[in-house]
Fold this sequence. Notes:
The complex is a heterodimer of chains A (762) and B (166). Chain A is of the alpha+beta class.
Amino acid sequence: xxxxxxxxxxxxxRPIRPDGVEKVIGRANFGADMVMAGMLWGKVLRSxxxxxxxxxxxxxxxxxxxxxxxxxxxxDFPEIASEEAFMGEGPMNFRDxxxxxxxxxxxxxxxxxxxxxxxxxxxxAEEAIGxxxxxxxxLPHVIDVEDAMKPGAPVLHDDxxxxxxxxxxxxxxNVAKRITFTKGDAEAGFKDAxxxxxxxxxxxxxxxxxxxxxxxxxxxxxxxQCTVWSSSQGQFMVRAYCAKLLGLDMASIRAIPAExxxxxxxxTLVYLEPVALALxxxxxxxxxxxxxxEEVFRGTGPAAGGVYEVxxxxxxxxxxxxxELIVKLQxxxxxxxxxxxxxxxxFAMYDIPNVSIxxxxxVSNRPKVAAYRAPGAPNSTFGTESCVDELARxxxxxxxxxxxxxxxxxxxxxxxxxxxxxxxxxNTLQVARASEHxxxxxxxxxxxxxASGFWFNIxxxxxxxxxxxxxxxxxxxxxxxDIGGSRASMAMMAxxxxxxxxxxxxxxxxxxxxxxxxxxxxGSRVTFATGMAVTQAAEKVVVELKKRxxxxxxxxxxxxxxRDGKAFPAGPNAGSFEPLSLAEIALKSGRTGGPVSxxxxxxxxxxxxxxxxxxxxxxxxxxxxxVKILRYTAVQDCGRAIHPSYVEGQIQGxxxxxxxxxxxxxxxxxxxxxLDNAGFLDYRIPVASDLPMIDAVIVxxxxxxxxxxxxxxxxxxxxxxxxxxANAVADAIGIRMRDLPMSPPKLRAAIDDEEPPxxxxx
Amino acid sequence: xxxxxxxxxINGEPAEFLCxxxxxxxxxxxxxxxxxxxKEGCGSGDCGACSVILDGKLVCSCLTLGVEAEGRTVTTxxxxxxxxxxxxVQQKFLExxxxxxxxxxxxxxxxxxxxxxxxxxxxxEETRYWLAGNLCRCTGYDKIIRAVLDAAAVMRGENPxxxxxx
Lengths: 762, 166
């Protein structure tokens, strides 16, 4: 059933979130806030080397320290076979994840876990890891993505042979995979072009930088029953990894979702939970492990960095006739960078007849990358949307006009396969075109940049239950951690369907034993897919409520209407009865067949594609190289905003992360492959004084595949900002920055350069 | 090694705890007193998630030793509301949807209260600089700044419209 925009009473309003009060009074329980009786504290020993063979580990001294109860190493985990795990937002392998949680044989990056201890206090655990003696044979390492691809580079995995090339390579290398996407004939297209721009862009890994470090409290009972309390983007994901990595049955693990203090994709895999379980099995005691911020930077995430070679060919009238993209993406120590989405998203905003895209997934001695908000898309889009701007300048054309000419619309076949339907990209361009922002004038050293972006959004498996309580209130149960206000959206959709006030619906995020399987919170899927399950569960309840009213009135259920939370006789022929409210039916449910309740599982398809267009104004201080964001407008097609404030919040947050990615954030390694900036002082994320208000403009082109028209929101906002900022810098001072971040020293060096790279057609 | 006995006042109530010399005030609040509203995001004074008010002054409790609380007055996030009645900053955070994950929220609310205790009418720029020591990765700060400015207006007796009502 579809719900019409005009008749909506709850959807589209801005109520206070159901979990709000406990979060503003400090009572919400996050990963590190849990304690269990008899609990020990765990701590992980991490590699100081970028690449080394582990010759021996001697824990004798650590185990003799009073208060130390156990030490685990890879020897305490079962050796498991290589097996694809479709668990996160990108490809994953169970064996790789086991090795990532605890190094086996070799350490592959600075910060790689080598051993862990359990002790009576955090201080003792900290002291104990210093007493574990690890003998390393240091190996040559490689950090840079293009260095890692060169013949003769230090090879991380001697069983890694490049997939996607024929014939199969005879030698192992760091290139895990080569992928291609082709549409039309790019070579012929470039011959036909009148203007060709070919550029190379680069970016460094950036961390998701959720403020809550990873944390868990686990208990492995002597009967084999395990409880895992942790902060993650999916309790079912945690359960599956723990079961696989430790050789346990899924039914023996109950994974309980803590409140999650930010994830952005970085908590779509596990680091601590299997280690804590191994320590708990060994000691017979509950174990708590909390990462330090330094561990978060060295041992988790980040998002991939990479190289993006872009070539665009156009006619003088602005029609793009050919496009080429080569993406070399860093996977970190194990294969699995988001190179696929990076390849697919770069040109998805455009209708280009001839396209060639090649992607490489490359390992190097860095932490294994994790998903980060539209994984891969911001990388390639920094390249493609910068290049579109360079093309506009070469054509002497308004960059927004160039996008209008080439915009993908319904019926356009994207280079990666799908033919678009019900997309709102042009709508975002129209709103940007008409915006007051675009009409404002700029001053000296100020510039304006435009960039667009795309993210697929996903659906997938979700479960939800709707229980009617005896007093006529409702409980909605879901299996997706609420990372940014989704409980409110779930309660709003249920309230809308049931016809009762929002405040009478209580949403609960349940553990793995209390609700059916739900794929993790990621891919901008929860309001779409889990929202669909919640809507259907509430609809099933309404069917039952009508049946109960029919029973009370002794008429056919078909003769009962449901509106505003009440049953009505469908018409005069149905009989004359006073309406029965949900509360009245609930009160009598014991006499009409028992409790009213429904659980629904879905594998939601038809997630609507997300498009956005951003406008960014900057001012460059040519003396210091500092870029100030003066004004920012982000226009995005959100399908239907269930709770507009949280939709705006997703947009504003994603934009701000993108601004950090553009201007400041990067992983910096020393010559030994050790991370130099593993803390918030040296890895600087945007703070309040860096920013203006972010104008989030919601465009609503309803997604016909969702009952309320929802399409995913959370990921698109981080896709355009890097190019928007770079394009604005180029507009301000005529210098094109093609290497992120555009930090003050780099920008200052570019300004100082006697012959700065000129704009566009040089 | 014997522990230190600390007598202090927390959220208006006398409190005592035992701590080791190297334990931070944050660890004492969280692990000894089970006041887990103050969060550790960095442990190095860079993120502000552990913000508390010590004798009227905003501090990072991760950079303060537990023994430093001896004889002093500590206000944590658990002491910002008056019983059932939320502080205007808390109420405006809810109305403005100024929190997403909610992890940095206690630190922001404590820091914002400290701002409004000493400046009843801060400008947007003053608010942004005061809160520059508190990191939020979810919101982009927009709704946080609006919430604090609205809370200031409420505390001055004005009645700014709530975005929570359509």
